[in-house]
Amino acid sequence: MAKQINAIVLGNKMKNTITVDVLRTVVHPIYGKTLQRKTRFKVHNDGFDVKPGDSVLVEETKPYSKDVNFKIVQCHPELVSGSKDKTEKKAEMPKQVRHDKRKKI
Fold first, then answer.
1. pLDDT at 77
2. Contact at 8 Å (CB) between 46 and 18?
3. pLDDT in tens, 34-54
4. Is the dihedral of CA 48, 69, 18, 80 positive or negative?
5. Strand, coil or helix: 73
6. Which of 26, 37, 41, 87 has the largest count of CB atoms under 10 Å?
7. How far, CA to CA in Å, does 99 sit from each of 92, 102, 103, 104, 105?
8. Contact residues for 38 (Cβ-Cβ < 8 A; gap 6+)
């Protein structure tokens, strides 16, 4: 059975190919700290409408080219928490008034 991996789409500018990031966590062998590592893969896109920020399920397959060894199995659009609309305005904080504590002569 082929490996299946969840990934995040980074770019879709190539014809029939997308670039994805795969995040994984590893534990440092000596210090025991949990670290996040990422790997970037090129994936064959056969008719899925994906855009950067979408979450996809990719599967290992025979090589399509020198760099492309995966294909898309499922697409979960905008499942990633970081792909929110940037049009939301932040709540404006009231300006702070600086009070001068020095005595005036």
1. 74
2. no
3. 999 999 999 999 888 999 989
4. positive
5. strand
6. 41
7. 21, 9, 11, 13, 16
8. 21, 22, 23, 24
CA–CA dist 30, 37 (Å, integer): 17
| 3-class DSSP state of 59 | strand
Classified by CATH at the fold level, domain 4-76 comes out as: OB fold (Dihydrolipoamide Acetyltransferase, E2P) (2.40.50)
**Rounded-to-integer distance, Cα 35 and Cα 23, Å:** 10
Q: What is the pTM of this model?
A: 0.67
